Structure formats: structure tokens, C-alpha cells
């Protein structure tokens, strides 16, 4: 369990590598815990009380999540809210872990002062009980940071001199940032990268409307749904391990690195801010059961992945939250978040997180059904000045269904009175889908031996052919058998 001396020598090897051309490489860390954490945007917690933090921690932990990566930016409440999060975890005393994910798109990093801020925050919490550690060192991650020089001549020198090898923090941090760079250049970050976090690996970024003719040639992107061949082509990208492989290979080139690899898993992505606000209007394709497909990939490759970071717990503005709607929303995002519950995604997390951590699928003691869909046809044309989000064409007009089944059975899906289809269900994980009709809703009925086990309807959800604005967020519902 404790390999402190190995870690210290890893640091020395990293330092030695600056002057010694001989390749030095340490074995992959055995002290890195195999855990699942979730990205928590502290910037949306200005109004949190300690009880808000406790309820988030308890809900996350009840769903197989072992910690929060605290995404902190340049907010006046960063230190006070981080302290409340740590107090909440300390009071619960349930083993929940916390660590910083410094948001370098917000924190200043063009001068040495920026490094001082990171060191000060790190050291303020490093010895608190909930701090995630690797062999006694504080685990520290980032969002971005690939352009930070901290006043040095280049980025690697900046991170090295102002953070990982600075006298305040040297030997005290295990640094696993998410730099958005070509992993082939990781080898220039000797003495910086103990590992890497692949933030974008949760989504199929390799496919876009622009390259669809090459990547998914049989998917007619103008159509509401695609041919079976087009879907098969999509499935090669959705949840795929290729982005992980390039990171893992890149880390292998970093002399002296522990090569800790943290992968991402995400349920969805849609953001819709106009040029007058954040000017972000795009989707990543979450179809083909991305949330489950990605987990299945991570389970299949679990020997190559140290940690999984769920993206995210509460990033409402980008629609990839799995936590409940509380705290603040980025201004304007209530238009696509209000009423769009993602607890269906959360409800699937424990099963896959447990399987990732242990290598064994947990026993399914109750049947579970989750349904989700977007709220309007992909080709709807609302009078929305922001315009349609980039790459919306990749989506299909479908409802997506997942059944965790205790035994074999049947699932009947329908969106209207006249489009029901019945699918065989086998014990374990089942992924189904059905085209969703304009004005349709979500309805799934799980039966076994002639008995209804689950009858799940999405209440007031309507697939509205005439929406007043673009909304490509997902609406989820879920139910378990009694
Ligand atoms: C459905 O109804 C609930 C409760 O009245 C409401 O909060 C939610 O916004 C509605 N959802 C949609 C998609 O209209
Ligand atoms: C959807 O419902 C609206 C309102 O009831 C109706 O006017 C419209 O014709 C329906 N569209 C379809 C495609 O069924």
C-alpha cells in the first residue's frame, strides 16, 4: 500500500533527467488508488452551506463515487467553499476524497504570482484528511494549463519551477493535469507530469459534421435517424478507447513519470450560449448510449486506467451533470437545464463504477430501467437568435433505453400509441433504442413471465416539434422494480 520511498525516488529521477540524457523510467504507480471521482464546479457553489456539500457527498458516495475533483477558478469564495467541502467530508467521516482541479482557463498563470496561488491553495488543504493522496502526496489535477508559463521562458519550465519542483511543493504533489495538447509532446514535461487526465476522452470528439463523410459515411446526417450501417459506424467512435491509448502512450515517453492515467466518462454535452455571453454553442454526440458505452470500454480496459473522473457532477451550462440541480446555474443556462433531470444517468453510475473498481459486475438485485431523449426533433427550426449548436446533425431522433435486468424478459418501448416495439432482454446490461415521434413521449414496459415488472412513463415530457428555442439537452427518467 505505501510506497513512499519509491515515490521519492521517482521525484529524484525526474529531477535527474534534466541533466542526464539516459532514459529513466519508473514503473506505473502501485500506490495510485483505483477510484472513481466526479468533477465538481466550485464556481457554482457560492451559495452552498455545509449541508449542501454533505448532501452532494452523500449522494455521490451512495452511487459509487469516491471523491470530487474540485474545479476551482478565480472566484473570491474559492477558499471558503473548498474549506466547507473539506469540513463536510471530515464531519461525514465516510472516506470521501477531495482534490483540486485547478481551472487554468480562469486562474491567472502568466506571472510567477499565479504559481504562488496554486501552491498556497495546495498547501492549505494538503494535510486535511479528505485530501486524495498518492503515497502521501497531494493529488492535484487541472482543467487546461497548457499555455501557462508563470513568467518562465516556456510552459514546462513554468509548471516545473513554479509548482511541481518549487521548494514550497516539491515532493508534496502528485500532479495529473488535463493539458489540451498532443500527447506525443508529453515528453517535454519531464518533472511536471506524474500523470495525465484526459478530460475530453468522455466524448467522441473524433466525429463531427465536418468529417462525417469520412468517419461515418453511411449516416445521412440530414435524416432524423440513420441506417443500421450508419449507427455501426458511429458506435466505433462513441465511448472508444483510442483517445485513451494516445494519452497512455504519451505518458510512457515522460522520463521518471509515474504515468498515472485518469480517464473521463461523461453522459452528455450541449451548451448554448450566444455571442453576447460565453459564446459557446455546440454539442458532442451522446447518442448510442454514450454513458453506458463509455463505461463498458473503461471496464474492458481497466488494467490500463488508474482513475476515472466523471465529467461532471454539476456543470449545468454544458449539460453533462449527473448530480441534482442545486447551487447556481451559469446565467441563461436555466433555459436548457430547468426540468431536465439527469438522475437517470446517476442511477446507472454505481453499477459501472463498481465494476470498474473491482473488475466484477455487481449482482443486480432489482430490475432497473432508464429512458432518455432530447426534447425536440434535431431538425426543428425555432426562432432562436443563438442558432443551432455546432454538430447537432450527429444526433438522431431516438429514445435511448438501458435495462439492468435480474433475469431474462421483454421490454416494450413506445413514444406514441402506434409505434410500440418489443425487444428481448437478457440478465445483465441491455441497451435498446426506438425512434421518437413528434409529439411523442417516453414509455417503457419491462415484463417477465407475463407479469409487468416496471412500467415507466415520462409524465409531462413531450418531443415537441415546435420548440421556442434550441435545446439538445437530455431528459431522463428511471425506475426500479419493487
Ligand atoms: C415536468 O413537470 C415538472 C413538475 O411539474 C417540472 O418541474 C418540469 O419542468 C417538467 N418537465 C418538462 C420537461 O417539462
Ligand atoms: C403535434 O401536436 C400539435 C398540437 O396538438 C398539433 O397541432 C400537431 O399537428 C402535432 N404534430 C404531429 C406531427 O403530430
UniProtKB/TrEMBL annotation:
A GO MF term: glucan endo-1,3-alpha-glucosidase activity
UniProt keyword annotations, A-Z: Hydrolase, Signal
Entries under Gene3D superfamilies matching the protein: Glycosidases
UniProt superkingdom: Eukaryota
Signal peptide boundaries: 1-21
Pfam families, per database record: Glyco_hydro_71
Protein's name in the database: Glycoside hydrolase
Source organism of the structure: Dichomitus squalens
Lineage: Eukaryota, Fungi, Dikarya, Basidiomycota, Agaricomycotina
Amino acid at each position: 500500500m505505501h510506497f513512499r520511498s519509491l515515490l521519492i525516488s521517482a521525484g529524484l529521477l525526474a529531477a535527474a533527467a534534466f541533466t542526464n540524457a539516459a532514459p529513466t523510467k519508473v514503473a506505473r504507480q502501485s500506490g495510485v488508488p483505483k477510484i472513481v471521482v466526479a468533477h465538481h464546479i466550485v464556481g457554482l457553489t457560492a451559495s452552498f452551506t455545509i449541508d449542501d456539500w454533505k448532501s452532494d457527498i452523500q449522494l455521490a458516495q451512495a452511487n459509487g463515487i469516491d471523491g470530487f475533483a474540485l474545479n476551482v477558478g478565480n472566484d473570491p469564495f474559492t477558499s471558503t467553499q473548498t474549506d466547507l467541502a473539506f469540513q463536510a467530508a471530515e464531519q461525514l467521516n465516510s472516506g470521501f476524497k477531495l482534490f483540486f482541479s485547478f481551472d487554468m482557463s480562469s486562474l491567472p498563470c502568466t506571472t510567477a504570482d499565479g504559481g504562488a496561488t496554486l501552491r498556497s491553495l495546495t498547501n492549505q488543504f494538503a494535510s486535511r484528511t479528505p485530501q486524495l493522496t498518492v503515497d502521501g502526496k497531494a493529488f492535484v489535477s487541472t482543467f487546461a494549463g497548457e499555455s501557462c508559463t508563470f513568467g518562465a521562458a516556456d510552459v514546462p519550465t513554468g509548471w516545473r519551477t513554479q509548482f511541481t519542483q518549487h521548494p514550497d511543493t516539491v515532493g508534496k504533489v502528485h500532479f495529473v493535469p488535463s493539458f489540451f495538447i498532443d500527447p506525443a509532446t508529453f515528453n517535454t514535461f519531464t518533472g511536471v507530469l506524474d500523470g495525465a487526465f484526459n478530460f475530453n476522452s468522455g466524448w467522441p470528439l473524433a466525429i463531427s459534421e465536418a468529417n462525417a463523410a469520412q468517419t461515418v459515411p453511411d449516416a445521412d446526417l440530414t435524416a432524423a435517424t440513420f441506417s443500421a450501417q450508419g449507427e455501426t459506424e458511429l458506435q466505433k467512435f462513441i465511448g472508444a478507447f483510442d483517445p485513451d491509448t494516445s494519452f497512455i502512450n504519451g505518458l510512457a515517453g515522460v522520463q521518471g513519470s509515474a504515468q498515472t492515467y485518469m480517464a473521463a466518462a461523461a453522459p452528455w454535452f450541449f451548451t448554448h450560449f450566444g455571442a453576447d455571453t460565453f459564446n459557446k454553442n455546440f454539442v458532442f454526440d451522446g447518442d448510442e448510449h454514450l454513458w453506458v458505452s463509455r463505461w463498458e470500454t473503461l471496464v474492458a480496459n481497466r488494467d490500463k486506467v488508474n482513475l476515472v473522473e466523471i465529467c461532471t457532477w454539476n456543470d449545468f451550462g454544458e449539460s453533462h451533470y449527473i448530480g441534482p440541480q442545486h447551487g447556481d446555474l451559469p446565467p441563461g443556462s436555466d433555459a436548457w437545464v430547468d426540468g431536465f433531470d439527469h438522475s437517470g444517468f446517476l442511477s446507472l453510475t454505481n453499477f459501472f463504477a463498481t465494476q470498474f473498481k473491482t473488475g466484477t459486475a455487481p449482482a443486480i438485485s432489482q430490475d432497473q430501467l432508464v429512458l432518455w431523449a432530447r426534447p425536440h426533433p434535431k431538425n426543428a427550426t425555432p426562432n432562436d437568435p443563438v442558432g443551432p449548436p455546432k454538430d447537432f446533425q450527429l444526433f438522431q431522433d431516438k429514445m435511448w433505453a438501458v435495462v439492468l435486468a435480474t433475469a431474462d424478459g421483454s421490454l416494450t418501448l413506445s413514444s406514441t400509441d402506434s409505434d410500440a416495439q418489443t425487444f428481448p432482454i437478457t440478465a445483465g446490461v441491455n441497451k435498446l433504442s426506438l425512434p421518437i415521434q413528434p409529439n411523442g413521449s417516453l414509455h417503457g414496459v419491462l415484463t417477465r413471465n407475463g407479469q409487468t415488472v416496471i412500467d415507466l412513463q415520462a409524465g409531462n415530457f413531450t418531443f415537441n416539434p415546435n420548440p421556442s428555442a434550441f435545446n439538445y439537452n437530455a431528459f431522463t427518467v428511471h425506475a426500479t422494480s419493487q
